[in-house]
Amino acid sequence: MRTERNLTRLDRVFARLDREPERPAGLDVPRMSRHRIVLFSATLAFYLAIVVAVLATSWLVRFDWQVMFFRPYQQWPEIHAFLDYWVVLGQRGPTAVMVAAWLGWRSWRQHTIRPLLTFGAALLLLNVTVGAAKIGMGRLGPHYATTIGANEMWLGGDIFPSGHTANAVVTWGILAYMASTPRTRRYLSALSAVVSLSVGLTTVYLGTHWLSDVFLGWAAGLLVLLALPWVEPLLTRVEGWIFSLRDLWRDRRAGAGLPAPVTPVPAMSPQPAAPADEPQVREPVGAPRPARAPAYLAPGPHTPRSERSPVTPAGSRRPPHSERASRAATSPRPVAGG
């Protein structure tokens, strides 16, 4: 009779993890295709158009002021508490920890550190490009604006482009970038676009960003994602260098952990017993001693107690009594007759 154990879901998960002891070959690495180059060029043109529109104090700046005077947080105060938590999806610290945990599991699962390296490269590009733009243009936010209708540029601010929006695009878009199938990539791309735009509009609702800041932040994050295939060859070399260091460290550790060769020690023969008139010599440690009979056993063959013949001791078992003997000697004997 054939019986099979019903596997639980956890058992199936661990069984699947054990299927790939080695790194799978042919991992899908996005390349800079013609379609991606067109998207990158269009996004860059949109980025430059937003910057020029703000620098020229065009209709976009006037629309920023109209939205600021509208004060959305006063128009819909019932959603303020929820949006205070929703905007956290654009903060770099919490989102980076969550996404890094997921990509770390992917790295362990696929026996490669490419997901983590790609995420680190994306965050580095984001910090450099968005940080340089913020410091270079120095635009003030709505709460610190000084002149109505002005673009508030080069006044020491750091809100143009929106860091929350750009970070949301890169953090959640990297999941779509690392997707294993085209269908999953399309779904995750749409989801990351919705999340990033909603996070950006939340900052406009809270009054911390202009609307043009959100548009520029969305374009800045998308440029980072579209430019990642240009960085892939460098990431491949870095990964190979890290793995070579790991192999070298393992070889050194294995060489240092080998046991030292053991020299065989010849067995020592037991020393003969010394005569009684000669001084005893201490035996070396570890030398076997000759077997000898226990001191409490009588020599000769041992017989059971039931087979032994009874032995009657000679004489009386009572000890001699001195008074009794003297009394018998001194007492007169009765005289018969008379």
Features:
338 residues, mainly alpha
Describe what this molecule looks like in 3D.
This protein has 338 residues and is mainly alpha-helical. Helix content is 56%, strand content 0%. The chain is built from 12 helices and no strands. α7 (114-137) packs across α11. The radius of gyration is 48 Å and the shape is elongated. The termini are far apart.
Describe the protein's topology.
Elements: H1 9-17, H2 34-55, H3 59-70, H4 72-75, H5 80-86, H6 92-110, H7 114-137, H8 163-177, H9 182-206, H10 211-227, H11 232-256, H12 322-330
Helix pairs in contact: 2-10, 6-7, 6-8, 7-8, 7-10, 7-11, 8-9, 8-10, 9-10
Which structural class do the helices and strands define? mainly alpha
Hey, roughly how much beta strand do the residues contain? under 5%
Shape: elongated
Number of strands: 0
Number of helices: 12
Estimated radius of gyration: 48 Å
Helical residue percent band: 55-70%
Low-confidence region ranges: 17-21, 334-338
Distance between the termini: 117 Å
Mean pLDDT: 78
Largest sheet: none
List the helices and strands in order: HHHHHHHHHHHH
